[in-house]
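Second attempt. The first submission of MICLK protein had a stray character pasted in from the spreadsheet, which I only caught after the job came back as garbage. Lesson logged: always re-copy from the clean sequence file. Corrected sequence (160 aa) follows.
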Amino acid sequence: RRQATEYSTSSSDGEFESKHFLTPKARRAIRKRRKLEKETKQLIKQEELKRLHKAQAVQRQLEELEERQRALEKFGVELERELRGEADSGTKDENQMLHEWFELVMEKNKLMRYESELLIIAQELELEDHQSRLEQKLREKMAIDDSLKDEMDLNEEDEI
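This time the job returned cleanly.
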């Protein structure tokens, strides 16, 4: 029983470690590596959360943008009817209605450009997320000793 407690296995590498055989320097190196792995995992998680928050903000902005575009479209339809004389324009003259129509078109174009920018940001976030997943997968593959890998594992690692 005493002998069994003297030996412990590392949870991260599965190596057989003995407290009697490891030098203090080796123990420090193992602790340092584990601490570094833990910090790396925390950083990855923080980056994922940042991307998630940014993606949520982009989605919210796209929804607001769509709502504004619908309102502009509705106003534009009414304005076009007035310009054609199909609806009662009230006290507005034709010059004023044309001015409003051109401003409406400019606003709509501005919103379309903004929507394009938001879609590019969303695509960028997707690519960053994909890259992060690939990096994590590669780290996992590279953590395995090369002598334990078969040809398929090596090819998959190269492909990543």
